[in-house]
Amino acid sequence: MEKHSILVVDDDQHLRMILHETLQSCGYEVEIADSGEQALEILAQKPFDLIITDLMMPGIKGIELVAKARERYPNIGAMVITAYGTIERAVEAMQKGAYDFITKPFSISQIESRVKRFFEYQALQIENRTLKRKLQEYQIDTKIIGESPAIKELLQHIDIAASSDATVFIRGESGTGKELVAQAIHDRSERAGKPFRKINCAAVPETLFESTLFGHEKGSFSGAYRQQKGIFEECNEGTLLLDEISEIPFALQAKLLRVLQEMKIIRVGSTEEIPVDVRIIATTNRDINELIDSSKFREDLFFRLNVFPITIPPLRKRKEDIPLLIDHFLDVYKNKYHFEKKVIAPSLMQKILNYDWPGNVRQLQHMVERAILFSGREETITEKHFRFEEEGSRGKNTALIPDEVVPLAEMERRMIMAALQKTNNHRTKAAELLGITVRTLRNKLNEYEQQGLMEE
Fold first, then answer.
1. In terms of DSSP H, where are the helices of 218-249?
2. Measured between alpha carbons, how far is 375 from 23 in angstroms, rounded to an integer?
3. Per-residue model confidence as pLDDT tens digits over 182-214
4. Which residues have C-beta within 8 Å of that of residue 352, sequence separation ≥ 6?
5. Hey, which residues does 81 pair with through a beta bridge?
6. Do residues 314 and 178 lie in contact, with contact meaning Cβ atoms separated by under 8 Å?
7. For labelling, which of 278, 282, 358, 388 has a CA lying 20 to 30 Å from the CA of 240?
8. What is the pLDDT of residues 432-447, one digit of tens each?
9. Quick check: 198 and 241 in contact, CB under 8 A?
10. Residue 89 has what pLDDT?
11. Tell me, what's the pLDDT at 128?
């Protein structure tokens, strides 16, 4: 096991030598310095686990030494030695990052136990960080579902990206889970716990884009009644997801490039540069090379974003994950709608596996939820409950339309009856579930009663 290293700093030669001898006999690697200035010189040459420094010394005092050392070497521990009359100053040193203080006079056993306690505390902190990382890994593995080679490779890429601060460029079709991957990278990075913000570049009006990203000063344009921070400032020290980056107006791409290169923003209506510390993740579902060739996206901005590229495979290229995804969604929605059991019929599962899934995981999720509602009290979900969507399916799956095709009015009736069953005939809750008013629901039920369609 590697020895812990300690730097002892004291202008009292006798005390320096006692501490050096005592700690060395305990198995620590010990070096000494007679001043704060010399200590900083030694720290610049090699790393230490712990500084033990006298509080009152000529030149750089113990408080200042602790502050400077902790600023330059955040992982280093610090303990201060103080007389009874300066305990308040010792408390100040602890506020600057010192772990403990020792009052004079002290015994050898006190020094030994205090130092031992510090390294036990340090080991516990390391263990906690390790456990936290493992918990994050577990949480991510349960969100990104699949055991296919493509998903295993994706998880490896997430690990690598999370261990760095490089800009990540995620490509994938709509519904593949680009935002989920971005969140996973943030959660496993050193920025976890700091802000994670998302901006959908396709949803921001061009006239508000610069203000949304960089903020604005009061009176900088019509409607700017007060100073407003942009998303870069709000996300400082965290991660910013620029979703659908391909939709950013071409005129603003040069400004974004400058911010990414310099990590400084200028609010609209100001000339002051504001430094920011933001990790960038960008996504697109479009052919970025085609956009570059047609002069709709700056090539230099692409190069700046594409430091660590990740491509998410479409669902049709990892169909072995579909049964796992279906089991997950069945659990989610049977709990949401209070069913005890829901399973997919084998014949339906085969059709699901043969389907092309143009909308990817998001489409599968929505179709499973809809099938659970259609199935009502039936435990087994069959072809009559599952509606394959022809639109956007690449023209390959017309044979997969279920045998039973019902009018929209009948489909609506089944949805209403299913919602009432899920809510134990609570009309207000059923209306909320369906996204309609209670009055509309009441009118529909009156129609079904007049038509003799209330048997379900």
1. 231-234
2. 73
3. 999 999 899 998 999 999 988 888 888 888 899
4. 322, 326, 344, 364, 386
5. 54, 102
6. no
7. 358
8. 777 788 788 888 888 8
9. yes
10. 67
11. 65
Structure tokens at 134: 């493992």
17 and 106 together in one domain: yes
CB 83 within 8 A of CB 104: yes
Same domain, yes or no: 308 and 325: no
Whole-number Å distance between alpha carbons of 389 and 387: 6
Mean pLDDT of the residues in the chain: 85
d(CA 355, CA 360): 11
Least confidently predicted of 81-85, 341-345, 410-414? 81-85
Three-state SS for 141? helix
Phi, psi (5° rounding) for residue 281? -125, 130
CATH at 49: 3.40.50.2300
Q: Which residue has the higher pLDDT, 314 or 209?
A: 314
d(CA 145, CA 323): 10
In this structure, the answer to whether residues 296 and 158 fall within a common structural domain is: yes
Boundary residue ending a domain (281, 313, 345): 313
Tell me, what amino acid is at 207? Answer: T
CA dist list (Å): 176 to 170, 281, 306, 361:
11, 16, 19, 6
What pLDDT is stored for residue 417 in this prediction?
Answer: 85
Surface-to-core class of residue 297, CB atoms within 10 Å of its CB (0-12 exposed, 13-18 middle, 19+ buried):
buried
Sheet holding 50-54, edge to edge: 29-33, 5-9, 50-54, 77-82, 100-103
Print burial letters for 259-272: b (CB count within 10 Å at least 16), e (below 16): bbeeeebbbbeeee
How many Cβ atoms from other residues are within 10 Å of residue 205's Cβ? 8
Query: Distance between CA atoms of 247 and 210, rounded to whole angstroms?
Result: 14
What is the reported pLDDT for 425?
81
Residue whose pair of structure tokens reads 């929605």 in the numeric block: 333
